[in-house]
Amino acid sequence: MSPAGVASPGAAGVVISLRGLTKRYADLTAVDGISFEVRRGEIFGILGPNGAGKTTTLEMIEGLSRPDDGEVIVDDLPVWPDPTRVKARIGVQLQATALFDFLRLHEIIRLFGSCYGVRRSTADIDALLDRVGLLEKRGSFAAQLSGGQAQRLSIALALVNDPVVTFLDEPTTGLDPRARRALWDVIRAINEAGTTVVLTTHYMEEAERLCERVAVMDHGHVMALDTPRALVHGLGADAHITFTLSAPVPVSDLCELDGVSTCAAHEAEGYSLVADDAQRAVVSLLGLAAQRELEVKNLDVQGANLEDVFLQMTGRKLAEEEEEDEGGEKVEKPRRRAFLFGRGGR
User: Fold this and answer.
1) ω before 81 within 30° of 0 (cis)?
2) Nearest in space to 86 (alpha carbons), one of 97, 72, 96
3) Who's near 113: CB < 8 A, 6+ residues apart?
4) Tens digit of pLDDT for each residue in 305-319?
5) Rounded to the nearest 10 degrees, what angle do helices 306-314 and 228-235 cross at?
6) pLDDT digits (tens, 9 = 90+) for 113-155
7) Is the separation of the CB atoms in 208 and 230 below 8 Å?
């Protein structure tokens, strides 16, 4: 499950190649010598929690942040030390894009294209809006868009220069489930039209549904790289069991249940087990509960998934983590932003 053995830079079918990529901020190593490749025409996912190094990795590939060590090649061009040529071949959808509220959608696309030196005809603009499901909104102001529509517009802007590779940084964060699935359809359509897509996400379902291969990142390292199915199969587990108990038990006792490979206790969510034999594990759990006169509640058994892969590799869940300020209050994670005029020429 390691990224070892990938093809050399410039090999047929390889559109992005990273070798020993490293980025440091003072004493923090945000990305620590990672290497992997993206195949031309695939949807490639970088999966990990906040702080894993996903966005920093994208910024170095996109030519927005200079690496401290290592090399990046995109479409046979080295990104550094001069990222100008590569920027003309890629599209970038940032985590948040500040748009002019009172420009209409077709005006925004025309203006954005001018930043790349691209002149778009009315027919071209309509075709681009149609690709992302916004043709009926072409005359609407940006301020009138819903959250999901604004995300689709930001993807349209990332396609305005007909890029070889489009980068989507957590494209569905903050969207409701319906809008998230609608955006998945847009991403699939972009890829089917011939554009390689690289996306970061902390939603394991998103990675499983969209990505042909995923790189699992944590603390600046690539922990594994393979297809979602191969990663799950390599886990050696076929069930994820969650439940609560009427009284606490030592988590070590749960790890000794028949059929259980790993176990964890979650303060607000009870317990979770990864089992290579679901039936034996459930029977053993119920036997332990009966022996100790405990009631098992909220029992749920599901097939193994990428969440379980990450849990086994890191000992923690992949759920998005909120940061706390010094007083212990929850604060929103800063999102990678850009104003309209700033994206093409950074």
Assistant:
1) yes
2) 72
3) 119, 120, 160, 161
4) 888 788 888 777 766
5) 50
6) 998 888 889 999 999 999 999 999 999 999 999 988 999 999 9
7) no
Which of 231, 224, 222 has the alpha carbon at shortest distance from 56? 222
Q: Is the peptide bond before 9 cis (omega within 30 degrees of 0)?
A: no
Flag whether pLDDT at 344 surpasses 80: no
Position 236 scores a pLDDT of 66
CA 244 to each of CA 30, 252, 342: distance values in angstroms, whole numbers, following the listed order: 36, 15, 50
Do residue 221 and residue 237 come from a single domain?
Answer: no
Q: How many domains does the chain have?
A: 2
Q: Are residues 210 and 122 in the same domain?
A: yes
- Regarding whether 241 and 222 lie in a shared domain, the answer is no
Half-sphere exposure of 195 (CA within 13 A, CB side): 28
For residue 275, what are the domain limits? 233-316
CA distance 169 to 167: 6
* pTM beyond 0.70, yes or no: yes
Q: Is the pLDDT of residue 10 over 80?
A: no
List helix spans (H) across the chain. Answer: 54-62, 84-87, 105-115, 122-131, 147-158, 177-192, 204-210, 228-235, 251-255, 278-291, 306-314
The CATH number covering residue 147 comes to 3.40.50.300
Q: Could you tell me if 183 and 276 lie in one domain?
A: no
User: Is residue 341 domain-resident?
Assistant: no
Q: Is the confidence at residue 237, as pLDDT, over 70? A: no
Question: In this predicted model, what pLDDT tens digit does every residue of 44-77 receive, in sequence order?
Answer: 999 988 889 999 999 999 999 999 999 999 999 9
Where on the phi/psi map is residue 117: left (φ > 0), alpha (ψ -120 to 50), or beta? Answer: left
CA distance 346 to 343: 6
239 and 162 within one domain: no
Place of tokens 């923690």: 316
Is residue 151, in this structure, part of any structural domain at all? Answer: yes
